[in-house]
């Protein structure tokens, strides 16, 4: 692949911040699979369902993601907030996984099943439960099995009470805080298990982000989602995920249903070394949920393949520097920039480097500067951080004065343009 760099006009992406979009744009020529990567001359906001995607499922909200790159292959109302039902248990599981990873909790720790957990989420509740006995002590390991495989509401409540004292505090101070740390800006939580609560709202996009994070960052725990059954209190229950028995390579993650949210599913499967994640929600029938998720995964495996646009540590562009001994700094991606594309090579790809700038000197090697975003046929497909490939020291007093005057003039022109 050959790369050419083109300076473009500045683009303002957020009020009050000067963001230079694609000061250096990547133009990939002669891509073997027949596509082309074009320079982006303006900001493209959001990601909508494409008219020529070749797929239009029946789920009111849906998204299909390639796990390794995070590339979005299909989406439909992906940012619409809905009740996530038991799919929300993924957030509770992640909080526990993270606590174990940090050393704040052990799999062997045992917690008591309170009367509240038993009545609200146990056998008397009539909902999904691991049938943990009231006042019994259950290990974190068993509670995770109960929450993930059996979708036990009692298991989730017991974990929440052990970590925070009660579910409300757990939802606010543990689940919401952790969701924000993971970049999930819209999700809200009212309890630990997804039982009906006005505070329980998630989008399929953020459920996909959460699933991808669990798969990539907690592989030792992710295997729980693929276990087909679990027995507790002498009661054997099968995993509620229908994909495990109906699709090659399926190994997770979670189903959910409430009257408010409808039937939903977060699923994942691996075929020929490629892992896809599907999220659907709002369906009216459990069979439709299973059919829709499987159909979307099969469509993705059949029609897409992974292509590397930029190799690891390859220069992808440059950013303007303020007050430095150099006017610009080279940028690289530490990991390969990969995107899923249609096998027929019909996709148009647009790449844009986005950063807040100019970047003030001094700049260290490896300093994060911004991101490179790649759009496929108008939908954002992947977003990868870019870093400084070189150190830039502070420039002379004269250099800083010239840069300061330049930015002042630019600011005056921008202010004038905004008044027009």
From TrEMBL:
Annotated keywords: Carboxypeptidase, Cell shape, Cell wall biogenesis/degradation, Hydrolase, Membrane, Peptidoglycan synthesis, Protease, Signal, Transmembrane, Transmembrane helix
Pathway(s) the chain acts in: Cell wall biogenesis; peptidoglycan biosynthesis
InterPro entries noted in UniProt: Beta-lactam/transpept-like, Peniciliin-bd_prot_C_sf, Peptidase_S11, Peptidase_S11_C, Peptidase_S11_C_sf, Peptidase_S11_N
Molecular function as annotated in GO: carboxypeptidase activity
Broad class of enzyme this protein falls into: hydrolase
E.C. code: 3.4.16.4
Record flagged with keyword Protease: yes
Highest taxon in the source lineage: Bacteria
Reactions catalysed: Preferential cleavage: (Ac)2-L-Lys-D-Ala-|-D-Ala. Also transpeptidation of peptidyl-alanyl moieties that are N-acyl substituents of D-alanine
Chain ranges of the Peptidase S11 D-Ala-D-Ala carboxypeptidase A C-terminal domain: 304-394
Role played: Removes C-terminal D-alanyl residues from sugar-peptide cell wall precursors.
Family indicated by similarity: Belongs to the peptidase S11 family.
Protein name in the entry: serine-type D-Ala-D-Ala carboxypeptidase
Organism whose genome encodes this protein: Bradyrhizobium xenonodulans
């Amino acid at each position: 692949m050959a790369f050419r760099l083109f300076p473009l006009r500045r683009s303002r992406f957020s009020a009050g911040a000067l963001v230079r979009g694609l000061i250096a744009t990547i133009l990939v020529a002669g891509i073997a699979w027949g596509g082309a990567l074009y320079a982006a001359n303006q900001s493209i906001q959001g990601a909508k369902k494409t008219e020529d995607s070749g797929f239009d499922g029946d789920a009111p909200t849906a998204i299909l993601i390639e796990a390794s790159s995070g590339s979005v292959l299909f989406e439909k109302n992906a940012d619409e907030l809905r009740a996530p039902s038991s799919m929300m248990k993924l957030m509770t599981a992640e909080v526990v996984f993270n606590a174990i990873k940090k050393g704040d909790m052990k799999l062997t720790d045992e917690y008591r099943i309170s009367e509240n957990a038993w009545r609200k989420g146990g056998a008397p509740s009539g909902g999904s439960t691991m049938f943990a006995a009231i006042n019994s002590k259950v290990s974190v390991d068993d509670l995770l099995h109960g929450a993930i495989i059996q979708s036990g509401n009692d298991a989730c409540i017991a974990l929440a009470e052990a970590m925070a004292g009660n579910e409300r505090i757990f939802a606010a101070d543990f689940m919401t805080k952790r969701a924000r740390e993971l970049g999930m800006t819209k999700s809200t939580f009212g309890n630990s298990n997804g039982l009906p609560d006005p505070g329980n709202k998630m989008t399929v996009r953020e459920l996909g982000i959460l699933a991808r994070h669990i798969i990539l960052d907690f592989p030792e725990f992710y295997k729980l989602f693929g276990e087909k059954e679990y027995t507790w209190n002498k009661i054997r229950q099968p995993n509620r995920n229908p994909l495990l028995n109906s699709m090659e390579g399926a190994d997770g993650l979670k189903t959910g249903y409430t009257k408010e949210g409808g039937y939903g599913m977060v699923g994942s499967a691996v075929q020929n070394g490629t892992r896809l994640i599907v999220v659907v929600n709002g369906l009216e029938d459990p069979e439709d949920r299973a059919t829709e998720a499987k159909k979307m995964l099969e469509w993705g495996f059949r029609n897409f393949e992974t292509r590397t646009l930029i190799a690891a540590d390859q220069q992808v562009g440059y950013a303007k520097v303020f007050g430095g001994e150099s006017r610009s700094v080279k940028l690289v991606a530490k990991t390969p920039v990969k995107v899923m594309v249609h096998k027929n090579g019909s996709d148009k790809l647009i790449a844009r480097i986005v950063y807040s700038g100019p970047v003030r000197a001094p700049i260290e090697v490896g300093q994060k500067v911004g991101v490179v975003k790649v759009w496929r046929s108008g939908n954002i497909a992947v977003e990868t951080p870019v870093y400084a490939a070189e150190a830039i020291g502070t420039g002379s007093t004269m250099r800083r004065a010239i840069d300061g005057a330049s930015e002042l003039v630019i600011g005056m022109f921008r202010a004038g343009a905004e008044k027009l």
